[in-house]
Write a sequence for this structure.
């Protein structure tokens, strides 16, 4: 029998208090689930929405261990946490999702790729290297050909830790860290699928989203939902996402990013065992949001419907170039005048170039109309400083 979290002292711990945690907490408050959040930032967006807030390092073993000892269930909103502490907590009886062993695999992009290869799941060819010298040696010996992508094995996020090397002129962009080098895919489109699972083994998937990325920041720029792709690709991507969440033994949600080339071959790019930027639109567009689905999964509750209520487009609100300091949202009133425009402000008081400050979802029965209005929002709503 599942432990009952509704209006009881049982505690759900969340490692990370950013915007993803804030949106998770909107679901837990609806159900009166007692929550405790750990984040290094005293001004983290989640601090005002949880029952207990603890400021501290997500990377320090003792901090994470002490935080989790009185939790019944522990989950994450960011994967860069101390997995060894989670292993110890699990051994002592705390329910930890995602499973710490799976988290260790996902935290290391090299291990991620090796996992895909071992299970014969489609991903681009790759090799692992210790640093710049070994990569340059491989180039000289014809083992690496331009163009290629270098990704640091650990600590990368939001476009950081990724270098696209198109020619010899780009070699100064190489990063001196253990990394993987993978072939560049001739990308026609990028999509993502969010799968969800509970401990009873129930698994469901959201429909894919298509994603366009900001060329300079390598951050999600425009999302369309459901993705305007062929049904065969939709079903193939969902099937792979289900295989992954089951093979990784993950409860909660797993976001799977895919690259599709011009021959409609599909490749797994990366995965994230938590709510994801590619699922923000589910708040307005689907019967159950990714955030509620994650809570259902980690608490071993029945999973909700992923049926699409209305198509949508979503844009990130990124700090504008040339602005640093106290945030000022220019044009927000004009956007709020329009039906079907949903503005989400994360609560970060300081802006800087390309910092994620919020997002806007636009719903419309016509995906093309939603896209057009989302592009208008992107031009109209600017994240500047006072």
């Amino acid at each position: 029998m599942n432990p009952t979290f509704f209006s009881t002292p049982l505690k759900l711990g969340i490692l990370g208090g950013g915007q993803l945690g804030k949106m998770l907490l909107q679901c837990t408050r609806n159900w009166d689930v007692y929550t405790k959040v750990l984040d290094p930032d005293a001004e983290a967006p989640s601090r005002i929405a949880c029952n207990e807030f603890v400021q501290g390092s997500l990377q320090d073993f003792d901090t994470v261990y002490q935080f989790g000892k009185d939790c019944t269930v522990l989950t994450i909103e960011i994967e860069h946490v101390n997995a060894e502490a989670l292993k110890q907590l699990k051994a002592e009886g705390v329910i930890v999702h995602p499973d710490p062993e799976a988290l260790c695999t996902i935290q290391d992009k090299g291990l991620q790729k090796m996992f895909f290869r071992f299970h014969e799941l489609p991903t681009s060819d790759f090799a692992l290297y210790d640093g710049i010298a070994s990569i340059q040696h491989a180039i000289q010996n014809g083992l690496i050909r331009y163009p290629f992508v270098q990704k640091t094995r650990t600590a990368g996020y939001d476009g950081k830790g990724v270098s696209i090397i198109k020619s010899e002129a780009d070699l100064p962009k190489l990063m001196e860290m253990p990394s993987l080098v993978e072939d560049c895919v001739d990308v026609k489109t990028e999509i993502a699928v969010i799968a969800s699972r509970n401990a009873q083994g129930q698994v469901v998937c959201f429909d894919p989203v298509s994603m366009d990325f900001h060329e300079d920041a390598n951050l999600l720029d425009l999302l369309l939902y459901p993705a305007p792709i062929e049904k065969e690709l939709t079903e193939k991507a969902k099937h792979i996402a289900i295989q992954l969440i089951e093979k990784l033994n993950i409860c909660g949600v797993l976001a799977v990013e895919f690259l599709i080339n011009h021959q409609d071959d599909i490749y797994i790019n990366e995965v994230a065992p938590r709510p994801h930027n590619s699922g923000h639109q589910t708040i307005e567009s689907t019967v159950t949001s990714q955030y509620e689905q994650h809570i259902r999964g980690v608490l071993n509750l029945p999973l909700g419907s992923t049926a699409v209520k209305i198509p949508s487009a979503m844009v990130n609100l990124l700090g504008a170039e040339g602005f640093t300091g106290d945030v000022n949202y220019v044009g927000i009133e004009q956007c709020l005048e329009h039906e079907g425009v949903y503005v989400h402000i994360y609560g970060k008081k300081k802006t800087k170039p390309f910092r994620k400050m919020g997002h806007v979802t636009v719903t419309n029965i016509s995906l093309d109309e939603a896209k057009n209005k989302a592009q208008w929002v992107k031009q109209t709503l600017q994240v500047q400083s006072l």
Notes: The chain has four domains: 11-96, 125-183, 185-309, 312-386. The chain has a mean pLDDT of 95. The domain at 11-96 is CATH 3.40.50.20 (Rossmann fold).
